[in-house]
């Protein structure tokens, strides 16, 4: 299924690959970097801990979980705002600006969906003060009936997938408070901001963050899968050699359709790093599959 929120880092096309690798755990699905939620919603787990530092994502999904945000309410909202958008000056841009300014004051989850679905290229980006920072897609008829129905259906589907508390628990914390919650029975899927790539208010990511993530995942008793990038036409992700080559790695070419700058639009080789054997995976096409023996690793690092 496809969630109602959009973002440039959305893993929709990679979900089958991730789930093919993921062993069926007895315990919970733990996702410290939830983003749009597409991986968790397709994971099939009855118990989950889902987290993101972006409060708008968590408020939206908690609102659905608690029955405060519903498909009929979303339809009503989108019909109303869509009508105003279609009639607004500057080819709809006047109303987009109005909703954006309102969101940046009040942070309504409905306005969050409006902006996510009427913003340029389905991108999500927040400025220095945490303000929504994406221009209009320039389609005044964006919320025509078919599109409104599509979004409403996505809200309806998500509301059936999200389990009530305490089976599914949402948090708005740093990943470092979430990973230690995992037990041996759980599986952790991490999709952090990619080091050296896209940055915004909720997506700062330094080598220290990567090191902390590495330390926490090295210590966990749970199984984990980490999404990261392996290389592109220009360069390699230096974090692989620095940290992740101690674990098993599988790779796959992936094309990101949206993104601000030209480099982010090109094909990138995606990697899944895991702390268990990846023998079941068919789709693997670059780099090494087995972890580097530690003797060889220390030679490579010197
Ligand atoms: C690459 S996106 C995840 C995309 C997601 N897998 C999807 O398919 O939509 C990374 C997410 O991590 C969140 N994030 C960034 N820094 C974080 C941190 N320190 N702790 C927890 N979440 C963080 C961002 O807000 C963003 O939603």
Outline of the structure:
The protein has helices at about 15-20, 40, 55-65, 70-85, 95-105, 110-120, 145-160, 175-180, 205-220, 240, 260-265, 295-300; strands at about 30, 50, 170, 185-190, 225-230, 250-255, 265-275. Strands 3-2-1-4-5-7-6 form a 7-stranded mixed beta sheet, covered by helices on one side.
Structural summary, described in words:
- With about 300 residues, the protein is of the alpha/beta class.
- The protein folds into 2 domains: about 15-55 and about 175-275, Rossmann fold, CATH 3.40.50; about 70-155, Adenine-specific Methyltransferase, Domain 2 (Adenine-specific Methyltransferase, domain 2, Orthogonal Bundle), CATH 1.10.1020.
- The chain contains 12 helices and 7 strands.
- It has a 7-stranded mixed sheet, covered by helices on one side.
- Helix 2 links the parallel strand 1 (about 30) and strand 2.
- The mean pLDDT is about 90.
- The protein binds S-adenosylmethionine.
- S-adenosylmethionine (SAM) binds near residues 10, 174, 191 and 193.
- The site of S-adenosylmethionine (SAM) has 21 residues, from helix 2.
- InterPro entries: Ade_MeTrfase_dom_2, DNA_methylase_N6_adenine_CS, M_m6A_EcoRV, MeTrfase_D12, SAM-dependent_MTases_sf.
- Pfam families: MethyltransfD12.
- Its EC number is 2.1.1.72.
- Keywords: Methyltransferase, S-adenosyl-L-methionine, Transferase.
- It comes from Niabella soli DSM 19437.
